């Protein structure tokens, strides 16, 4: 039976060298792929991030995977992420397929209960987001949006009739979308 605590120094040295080199390759690829690769995550970005981490761990610990194989896997994942975001910027249909849309959770102090249920949001999450903005009363909020990243945007008061950034939000009242 193999010793579970220590195999040999060669194995330790390999892990240290491969970990360093694989990390450098991954950082280089991420930096050269642009800021979007490291942006706030939607579901697809989250999957790519997990896959990159899993690939990094596999390259470091699995002796059957070479650094070159791991580098190609990193490149493939980052290229796929780049291609998906490139397509989503150029095609609205593709974007809707890949990402969710922002949704109105609260409007003029009233919770949108159907939306909250559909999106599986708890009242505690809403209260937390509101408190983080320094607001104590839901009635003091004009708009609260669940963004595509899963974060909440709280807009206490709409100060203008120009609401360009809100018009794309699902369930935003049609009469407001002039």
From TrEMBL:
Record InterPro entries: DUF421 (IPR007353), UPF0702_alpha/beta_dom_sf (IPR023090), YetF_N (IPR048454)
Compartments it resides in: Cell membrane
Keyword Nucleus attached: no
Domain YetF-like N-terminal transmembrane: 19-86
Keyword Acetylation carried by entry: no
Major localization listed first in the record, in broad terms: membrane
Transmembrane feature ranges: 12-30, 42-61, 67-89
GO CC annotation: plasma membrane
Keywords: Cell membrane, Membrane, Transmembrane, Transmembrane helix
Bilayer topology term: Multi-pass membrane protein
Domain YetF C-terminal residues, every copy: 91-162
Pfam families given in the database record: DUF421, YetF_N
Protein family: Belongs to the UPF0702 family.
UniProt protein name: DUF421 domain-containing protein
């Amino acid at each position: 039976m193999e010793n579970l605590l220590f195999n040999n120094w060669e194995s330790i040295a390999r892990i240290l060298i491969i970990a360093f080199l694989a990390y450098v390759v991954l950082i280089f690829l991420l930096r050269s792929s642009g800021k979007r690769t490291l942006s706030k995550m939607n579901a697809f970005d989250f999957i790519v991030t997990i896959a990159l981490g899993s690939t990094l761990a596999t390259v470091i610990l699995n002796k059957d995977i070479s650094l070159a194989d791991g580098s190609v896997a990193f490149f493939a994942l980052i290229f796929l992420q780049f291609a998906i975001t490139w397509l989503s910027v150029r095609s609205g249909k593709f974007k809707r397929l890949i990402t969710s849309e922002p949704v109105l959770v609260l409007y003029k102090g009233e919770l949108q209960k159907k939306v909250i249920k559909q999106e599986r949001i708890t009242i505690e999450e809403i209260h937390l987001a509101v408190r983080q903005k320094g607001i104590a009363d839901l009635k003091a909020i004009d708009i609260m949006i669940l963004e595509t990243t899963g974060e909440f945007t709280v807009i206490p008061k709409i100060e203008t009739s120009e609401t360009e950034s809100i018009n794309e939000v699902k369930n935003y009242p049609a009469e407001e979308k002039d």
